[in-house]
Amino acid sequence: MTPDDTQILGRCPDCGERIPTAWLLVKYEKDDGETGIWAECPDCADVVAPE
Length: 51
Ligand SMILES: [Zn+2]
Hints:
Blueprint: E1 8-11, E2 18-20, E3 24-29, E4 35-40, E5 47-48
Antiparallel strand pairs: 1-2, 3-4, 4-5
The structure holds zinc ion.
């Protein structure tokens, strides 16, 4: 755990890079009521679902 973990959305499923909240693109509600997010990976320059 690092102090800036609250600024991280999650990790890129493709490259494992930590994705900062500033890279958040879309928040949406899934069918099951959970919040899903799409963000751009700063490393892949691609849109991913952080995990
Ligand atoms: Zn990536």
